[in-house]
């Protein structure tokens, strides 16, 4: 399927959006800069969350690390700590690595074109197009979920937008629509239009300047478009966290690679196929770690929390266990567990799941 347009349709669409944008756009800090570093930061954060939730993170990052050199030089734990709560931590690690790449390979200057930006780690087509157009006025169209939705509705694209072939069609269409004179403004406009006017569930069709030409509106298909196949059901994992405590310390360890939450801190983890772990099994696991349970404290009530990630669902239970004595040194060496006091735990980067547990349990 092709959606390449005639000149009048192309001009009409661009003109309508560029007319709409200045009157409706939100005033956001990254829209007042042409600094590719600041734009890149904002885009990485906004891929993770909505504008309202992302704004404090952006302000925190740009204040803590005003230049790419500052970010590159920061310890990874500290960067993860600033990222805490945004989830999908590999993105934060990639971001940190990219900053180092920019410093080491590009002398601290972001590459100056779309094609060069694509060579940076973690910078895909969308981010490269955003930076190239917003910072350098390069005529390259961005494609994100908002843009897909707007184009699918306005131009009546009825095929699955998640299919790989669709991306090519949309890129072709968006490249036809983006004007040479105002590429940055156009990209901002179409994304903002999707974010606040042509929204997924309740688009404001009544007061929409594209209503007359909009295929979805004219054909009563606003709720049907865009067509998007459902992602595979997320698998459920059952995490049993053993919150091992002794005196005024709690044992945590840094998570290793190749699993969720890499580089973040959590408690001793016992993963099972089911949601339950009887008290007797808790004792067995502690003993397998060389620990001795202070029996009068082993039956503390457990707290259950659920955490949904993009591709898996974690059902976590926390078993608070007081130890009779500290864990042996061999266990610490083998597991990476180490005793921390409350103030130290506060400073460690942790997933939101662990953070929530800690604040609920009063550690
Ligand atoms: S008429 Fe409705 S569906 Fe069409 S572009 Fe406007 S808001 Fe979106």
Report on the structure:
One of its GO terms (biological process) is mismatch repair. Residues 45-196 form the HhH-GPD domain. It catalyses: Hydrolyzes free adenine bases from 7,8-dihydro-8-oxoguanine:adenine mismatched double-stranded DNA, leaving an apurinic site. Keywords: 4Fe-4S, DNA damage, DNA repair, Glycosidase, Hydrolase, Iron, Iron-sulfur, Metal-binding. The protein is of the alpha+beta class. The chain has two domains: 7-218, Endonuclease III, domain 1 (Orthogonal Bundle); 235-361, Alpha-Beta Complex (Nucleoside Triphosphate Pyrophosphohydrolase). Helices cover 46% and strands 12% of the residues. It is built from 16 helices and seven strands. It has helices spanning 7-24, 36-46, 51-64, 68-73, 76-83, 89-106, 114-117, 125-136, 145-155, 164-177, 183-196, 215-218, 279-288, 329-335, 342-347, 352-361; strands at 235-246, 249-254, 265-266, 268-272, 303-308, 312-322, 338-340. Strands 1, 2, 3, 4, 5, 6 and 7 form a seven-stranded mixed beta sheet that branches. Helix 1 packs across helix 11 and helix 5 crosses helix 6. Bound molecules: iron/sulfur cluster.
